[in-house]
UniProtKB/TrEMBL annotation:
Basic and acidic residues biased stretches: 59-69
Signal peptide: none
UniProt protein name: Phosphoadenosine phosphosulfate reductase family protein
A matching Pfam family: PAPS_reduct
Location of the Phosphoadenosine phosphosulphate reductase domain: 116-188
Region (Disordered): 59-80
InterPro entries: PAPS_reduct_dom, Rossmann-like_a/b/a_fold
Molecular functions (GO terms): catalytic activity
Organism: Streptomyces odorifer
UniProt xrefs under Gene3D superfamilies: HUPs
Length: 297
């Protein structure tokens, strides 16, 4: 069994990779792999994509006999209808691991079978609700490997997930205690507004980098919601509430499964895994970039 983490670099919440590795180790999975897209990160790719889209728009305008300087350039940011970020930053790099695993098992003399286990759930979005619990991953399969995708928690509710975390005693990312509903890119183009504002409060330097790219590519980060506006809302909250609040560890879990279960989870986690120090380190290294100087606890 192998756990793989697709590292998104500066655009993802800090310490996610360390947490994934820790979870794998505590769950008894012997092999942990990290993959990462080669070259530019997701934010730099937006600018690169803009350059290509602009060149294409100008070329097409010239062919139509129009002034290329007035050519309308398609949005460079990823979106639900142009979700190039996931294959570029996650699916593609993860397939490089499948290639390596397949090569390692070449001695079998037959196509390798890989069961790809993903935590996507129907409750997360209408799009995800349409996904099957089990299906052949035809795009990742080829003559040398047959990939089956399995979504074992596809039908789980939020409550069931939190109960399972409590039961397993595995640590979860502190961003959930800070109010996030999802965890991946700090600024996900599909993220809800409160997660985005939370990200701008916690990782303002990354929000500023996104706002600069908005200017470069001449388009808002998200249709109808610019990063400038997200930063403005974060600043309003900061002014009203003071520096981003520091909710105690276990806040997110307690909101779903209650204080008693959460207190037991934290006690048993510390006792069984001796995780106090490790989790404190994760919480201290909060933020989406790796150079945050904001500290919690
Ligand atoms: S978390 Fe959001 S922005 Fe980041 S790769 Fe996934 S869909 Fe794209």
């Amino acid at each position: 069994m192998v756990v793989v983490h697709a590292d998104l670099g500066r655009v993802e919440w800090a310490s996610t990779r360390e947490l994934a590795e820790l979870q794998a180790r505590l769950a008894g999975v012997p092999r942990f792999e990290v993959v990462q897209a080669k070259g530019a990160d997701l934010l730099d790719r937006v600018e690169i994509r803009y350059g290509k889209l602009r060149a294409k728009a100008k070329e097409e305008a010239r062919e139509r006999g129009e002034d290329p300087s007035t050519a309308k350039v398609a949005p460079a940011w990823p979106s639900s209808s142009a979700r190039w970020c996931t294959p570029d930053a996650k699916r593609g790099p993860i397939r490089t691991l499948y290639t390596r695993l397949t090569a390692e098992l070449a001695h079998l003399g037959r196509p390798v079978r890989i069961l790809e286990c993903i935590g996507q759930r129907a409750a997360e979005s209408r799009q995800r609700a349409k996904l099957a619990g089990v299906e052949i991953n035809r795009q990742a399969s080829n003559g040398k490997r047959h990939i089956t995708t399995w979504r074992p928690i596809h039908g789980w509710s939020d409550r069931r997930v939190w109960r399972e975390i409590a039961r397993s005693r595995l640590p979860y990312h502190p961003a959930y205690d800070w109010g996030n509903r999802r965890l991946s890119c700090v600024f996900c183009v599909l993220g809800c507004t409160s997660d985005l504002v939370n990200g701008a409060r916690r990782v303002p330097e990354l929000a500023a980098a996104y706002a600069r790219v908005e200017i470069t590519v001449g388009a808002d980060f998200k249709a109808g919601l610019s990063m400038r506006e997200i930063i403005r809302r974060a600043q309003v909250l900061e002014a009203a509430e003071g520096p981003a609040a520091r909710p105690p560890a276990g806040t997110a879990m307690a909101a779903i499964v209650g204080q008693a279960v959460t207190a037991k989870y934290r006690r048993r986690q510390a006792a069984v895994y001796g995780l106090g120090g490790l989790i404190s380190r994760l919480r201290r290294s909060e933020g989406g970039s790796h150079h945050t100087n904001t500290h919690y606890y």
